[in-house]
Amino acid sequence: MGRFDTVVIGAGIAGLTCARMLADTGRRVVVLEARNRIGGRMHTERSAGFPVDLGASWIHGIADSPLWELVRALDVPTIEFTVGSFQPGGRRIEHFDATGAPMGADETEQWIADVGAADALLVDAVARSSPGESYLQLTERALAASGLAPERIGEIREFFRHRVEEQCGAWIGDLDAHGLDEDAIDGDEVIFPRGYDELPRRIAAGLDVRLGHVVESVARRDGGEDEWLVRTGEGDFVGATVVVTVPLGVLRSSAIRFDPPLPRTATGPIARLGMGVFNKVFVQFPERFWGEGTYAIRALGDAGARWHSWYDVSAISGIPTLLTFAAGPFGRSMQALADEAVVDDSLTALRALYGAAVGDPLAWWVTRWGEDPFAAGSYSHLPIGSSYRDHDMLAEPIDGGLHFAGEATWGAEPATVGGAYCSGHRAAERLLGRPVDRAEFAAAIVRRER
After folding, report:
1. Prediction pTM value
2. Cβ(401)–Cβ(387) under 8 Å?
3. DSSP one-letter string for 386-441
4. H-helix or E-strand containing 211?
5. Per-residue model confidence as pLDDT tens digits over 296-311
6. Omega of the bond prior to 66 within 30 degrees of 0, cis?
7. How far apart are CA 274 and CA 269, in angstroms?
């Protein structure tokens, strides 16, 4: 039975950041990871000879981002890929109307203007909303006040629905009226040509990480006021403190037993917050059938009822590649199908736009985060009745040295790698009782690599 100053549960970016910061001060730390790899929901597949980020892909907004500071300090290469948090314009997007016909420049500009006007009404409606109202109710209120033609209202309705699904992995009617309040992008967005998991791999170098260790329970030691016993199928571990960084979906599943039971300050947020499903479908083609310089393809209204947006990520592999998403209820239904059925369904939607120009795919990758037992979803969101205070409440330390970290505990930027990174930093500072300089943290990583 190993004894440590801190046992960290979960080797995602939050757990590894916390463990690294503690270990750098000489603390004895072990990281227990259920999977046979590190990274958690940062999962880069490389079997094809190039990286495919099946989990997190983007830094959404690099301005004033602590995560971006780390990326620069570690000299990790990135590619600018700014889609503006599912905005209607801002970069070259090939738009198709509800019939599947390509939209001209004037039509596109009118569409962008109409969405902007409806969004302004929506912002006002959210500001005036009452507790218990859903995002769906507010969008309908804004659309009713827009004065737009019914067909345009239908297109914007679909746009709003897909925006919620892509941002939250949830149905628009389940999301709290304030569920997208933090959804602002400051600065460019970037992706990672060498794979996003370079960050957790470099942070983890030299740490004591035990893979394949599924945690079953976390309990205060009998007669021990200052020790915790963490049980796994591979052995037991004792820590003066414990940091739990597993995804919210795992906490909601009660896969880990806590003794004594968690207080209401933890169980309340766990019950109120939601865990969305956001799955990716990458498809590679023999030839590009969309325009050079196109960031995204977007189908409006009926044409995009199922598959709404595709993103050109060809720069990663050098092979024409589109990335599309199946999220929310649609994502849950798609992940129950075989890969071939999912890809065929998405290709049917593309061929309705581009016809025979859409060639047979060379390769594809399909994710199923909702069926992953060590994630039980993609990331957290705010259902009706919850608030961003729930994220922060979940992060409050529990008497005796039990802490929580991860994207679901960072109210300022939940559902992001940046939020998870900051939460790991915060947990380390709380355990140490002093600030940890992020620049020195990054510099220490670089020094160890020399």
Report:
1. 0.96
2. no
3. --HHHHHHHTS-BTTTEEE-SGGG-TTSTTSHHHHHHHHHHHHHHHHTS---HHHH
4. none
5. 999 999 999 999 999 9
6. no
7. 9
Short-list 368, 350, 283, CA closest to 317: 283
Whole-angstrom Cα distance, residue 270 to residue 275?
A: 10
Tell me the residue type at 279: N
Rounded to whole angstroms, how far apart are CA atoms 218 and 261?
10
For residue 35, give the H/E element and its range. Answer: none
The average pLDDT across 260-264 equals 96
The runs of H, that is alpha helices, within 87-104 are none
Is there a contact between 57 and 83 (Cβ–Cβ < 8 Å)? no
Interval 375-419: pLDDT, tens: 999 999 999 999 999 999 999 999 889 999 999 999 999 999 999
Question: Domains of the chain, with CATH numbers?
Answer: 2-43+59-76+193-273+385-449 (3.50.50.60), 93-184+278-371 (3.90.660.10)
Buried b or exposed e, range 363-386, using 16+ CB within 10 angstroms:
ebbbbbbbebebbbbbbbbbbbeb
User: Whose CA is closest to 285, among 263, 246, 312, 252?
Assistant: 312
CB 17, CB 195: distance < 8 Å: no
Q: How far apart are CA 95 and CA 100, in angstroms?
A: 9
| Residue 224 Cα distances to 81, 237, 428, angstroms | 52, 14, 23
Angstrom distance (rounded) from CA 402 to CA 8: 10
Element (H, E) at 142: helix 135-146
Within 10 angstroms of residue 27's Cβ, the number of other Cβ atoms is 17
For 223, which DSSP code?
Answer: T
What is the percent of the chain where pLDDT is above 90? 91
**Taking a C-beta distance cutoff of 8 angstroms, is the pair 250, 376 a contact?**
yes
CA distances from 223 to 217, 226, 242, 360 (A): 18, 9, 17, 65
% of the chain beyond a pLDDT of 70: 98
Tokens of 131: 């507790």
